[in-house]
Amino acid sequence: MIKEVRLKKIQEYINEKESVSLDELVSVFNVSKNTIRRDVQELLKTGDYKKIYGGVTVNHENKKGLDSFKERSVRNQEAKQLIGQIAGNLVNDGDVIFIDSGTTTIEMFEHIKNKKITIITNHIELIMKCIPHDNISLICIGGILERQTNSLGNINNLELLNIYNINKAFMSSTGISIRNGVTNASPIESKLKESVVRKCNEVYLLVDHSKFDKQGLITYCKLDEINYLVTDKVPNSTYRDFFNENHIKMIYK
């Protein structure tokens, strides 16, 4: 593997994992430790990463907000597709559902596109996908364009949610933790998410394994406010105990 390609792949790997050891990078990329040290040293010069004991981590202080929708959509893609399939199978004909903006929730579409349902959303890509399907009644929450999330948001439009009886909400998150709850990077979007969680009786949180013990700028609900967790891997015992104690059902394959 040529150096430029390897550097790009190492960068993508660190962004996905948040923090990695040098030994892990040696094993994953099958190169010597000296080579990894040199590669990491070059990445440190960008300011996007910080050196830690025995490894390297993402420098969030230097990050300029949320990565673009396109950048995030290629991370953990197989996990997101699996979660989207699981969540899509939970939707039944006649359901009125809210689908949150996000690179995981969009993966539901292929598994719900032939169902006779009503979708409420601010997710621009999802809106475009739904337009050709007459079996889907589409209610769009408009507002300000959030380019990094491919969504629309406006706190003045939240009263629209009070009109409709939403029986299932499929939510996304920048990161979750027991201490900080379910988090998000956008202040405008967070208000919408908060309102949906309070409005809906069945809240499904769609997060892959990389989102655990991570956090975004704003907490939009506590972790015990969700009803179902849809993920790709069994979480650790701390989370399993928390979900059991709070009657949150875990759904995974």
Please name the defining characteristics of this protein.
253 residues, alpha/beta, Arc Repressor Mutant, subunit A, Rossmann fold, 2 domains, 7-stranded parallel β-sheet, 22% strand
Instruction: Give the overall shape, derived from the CA principal axes.
Output: elongated
Helical content (DSSP H or I, runs of 4+): 25-40%
CA-CA gap between termini? 34 Å
Strand adjacency order, main sheet: 6-5-4-9-12-14-15
Outline the low-pLDDT stretches. Answer: none
Class inferred from helices and paired strands: alpha/beta
Descriptive notes:
The protein is of the alpha/beta class. The protein has 2 domains: 3-62, Arc Repressor Mutant, subunit A (Orthogonal Bundle); 69-251, 3-Layer(aba) Sandwich (Rossmann fold), CATH 3.40.50.1360. 34% of the residues lie in helices and 22% in strands. The protein is built from 9 helices and 15 strands. The strands form 4 sheets. A 7-stranded parallel β-sheet has the order 6-5-4-9-12-14-15, sandwiched between helices. It has a 3-stranded antiparallel β-sheet with strand order 1-3-2. A hairpin with a 2-residue loop joins strand 2 and strand 3. Helix 2 (22-29) crosses helix 3 (33-44). The longest helix is centred in the first third of the chain and has 15 residues, at 3-17. The protein is elongated. The model has no long low-confidence stretch (mean pLDDT 87).
